[in-house]
């Protein structure tokens, strides 16, 4: 086996974040297991000074792990990768911040590429968006959305990667506030209004402190609440970059799918319909609608059979996805989900069912087994 000194991998290890690999002592014995959280800079420096090592084989990119993983492991990988991105996002800006964020985000991009339907499923289910984690998970869901829509719009690789990073970091300065607001029923305070109004510029300042010099990235974050014509904020710009325009739409769409203390999550068909009505004919909104469909993966639907089902895969058209029935026609939970093709007349969808009305929960791995690779 070959080993590299931990000290040369500083950009891949962050205080307060889980280690992405095992760390070994100078004699090759295991010192810290992958996933261990290094609690302080002093502890990190002590590891460097004692000549801690990392097995070269473990430095293989997480994206390679995603590509090689069996399908049943993908839900588990989504959970762990989302957690890693969340940890990276919430670390205070420093010289290695962007490298660490890109390292954590790479497997998420690989997961999107591996199974786009399962990526949309993450956005719809929003299972990790409670309280203080809400802001982080919302940014990740927005990033998944803009990446997929940018590809549908045939943006080049550089622009697609930029909009993904901009979505992750657009709310960098207000993650904690977003968590508070998701639980708040009282009207906004004046201080909260000011924090919301100023968060685009404050997020830009945090990125600059972290060493980001990509002007297009920074401008996209600064403008992600601006609206062409001047009705947005904070500057009321009349012209907005394409990247910022896509960020704003993804931000709005994914927010509609999230529940708050003051309101339930909107159903996917309602969210899509509102986006279309508020932005008729715009190619970005049209691309978003086509990418997610009327019944996107993760959406609960009622079938003509009387069964309740959950969408697991997009179909030949935006209205005919593949679903997994989770109840029988009488509403009783099935012991195992059953695949249904809604393009067939006898298995068609008759409507969307709000999550609050669904009491049956099925592990994602079981649902994934019914989808075609």
Task: Describe the structure concisely.
This protein is α+β, with helices and mostly antiparallel strands and 373 residues long. 46% of the residues lie in helices and 11% in strands.
Protein model, in words:
- With 373 residues, the protein is α+β, with helices and mostly antiparallel strands.
- It folds into three domains: 57 residues, no CATH class; 231 residues, Hypothetical protein af1432 (Orthogonal Bundle), CATH 1.10.3210.10; 69 residues, no CATH class.
- Helix content is 46%, strand content 11%.
- The protein contains 14 helices and nine strands.
- It has a five-stranded antiparallel β-sheet with strand order 8-7-6-5-9. It has a two-stranded antiparallel ribbon with strand order 1-4.
- A hairpin with a 5-residue loop joins strand 7 and strand 8.
- The longest helix is centred in the middle third of the chain and has 20 residues.
- The radius of gyration is 22 Å and the shape is globular.
- The model has no long low-confidence stretch (mean pLDDT 91).
> How is the CATH topology of the largest domain named?
Hypothetical protein af1432
> How many beta strands in the DSSP annotation?
9
Give the number of helices: 14
Query: Strand sequence of the main sheet, in spatial order?
Result: 8-7-6-5-9
The computed structural class is: alpha+beta
State Rg: 22 Å
Q: Could you describe the largest sheet, including whether it forms a barrel? A: 5 strands, antiparallel
How helical, in percent, are the residues? Answer: 40-55%
Q: What is the level 1 CATH name of the largest domain?
A: Mainly Alpha
Number of domains: 3
**SSE sequence, one letter per element:** EEEHEHHHHHHHHHHHHEEEEEH
């Amino acid at each position: 086996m070959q080993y590299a000194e931990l000290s040369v991998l500083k950009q891949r290890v962050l205080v307060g974040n889980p280690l992405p690999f095992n760390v070994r002592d100078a004699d090759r014995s295991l010192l810290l297991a992958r996933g261990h959280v290094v609690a302080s800079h002093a502890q990190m420096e002590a590891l460097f000074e004692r000549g801690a090592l990392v097995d070269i084989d473990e430095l293989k990119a997480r994206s390679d792990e995603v590509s090689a993983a069996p399908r049943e492991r993908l839900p588990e990988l989504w959970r762990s990768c989302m957690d890693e991105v969340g940890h990276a996002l919430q670390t205070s800006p420093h010289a290695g911040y962007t490298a660490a964020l890109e390292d954590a985000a790479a497997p998420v991009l690989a997961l999107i590429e591996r199974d786009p339907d399962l990526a949309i499923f993450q956005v719809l289910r929003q299972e990790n968006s409670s309280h203080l984690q809400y802001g982080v998970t919302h940014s990740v869901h927005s990033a998944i959305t803009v990446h997929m829509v940018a590809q549908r719009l045939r943006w080049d690789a550089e622009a697609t990667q930029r909009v993904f990073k901009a979505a992750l970091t657009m709310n960098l300065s207000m993650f904690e506030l977003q968590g508070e607001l998701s639980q708040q029923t009282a009207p906004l305070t004046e201080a909260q209004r000011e924090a919301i109004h100023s968060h685009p510029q404050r997020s830009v300042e945090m990125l600059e402190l972290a060493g980001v010099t990509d002007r297009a990235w920074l401008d996209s974050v600064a403008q992600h609440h601006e609206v062409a014509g001047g009705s947005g904020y904070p500057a009321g710009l009349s012209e907005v970059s394409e990247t910022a325009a896509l960020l704003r739409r993804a931000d709005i769409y994914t927010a509609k799918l999230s529940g708050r203390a003051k309101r339930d999550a909107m159903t996917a068909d309602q969210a899509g319909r509102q986006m279309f009505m508020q932005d008729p004919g715009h190619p970005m909104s049209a691309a978003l609608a086509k990418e997610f469909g009327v019944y996107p993966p993760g959406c609960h639907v009622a079938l003509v059979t009387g069964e309740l089902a959950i969408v697991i895969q997009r179909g030949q058209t935006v209205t005919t996805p593949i679903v997994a029935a989770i109840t029988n026609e009488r509403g009783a939970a099935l012991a195992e989900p059953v695949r249904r093709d809604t393009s067939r007349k006898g298995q068609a969808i008759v409507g969307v069912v709000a999550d609050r009305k669904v009491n049956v929960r099925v592990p994602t791995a079981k649902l994934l087994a019914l989808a075609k690779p």
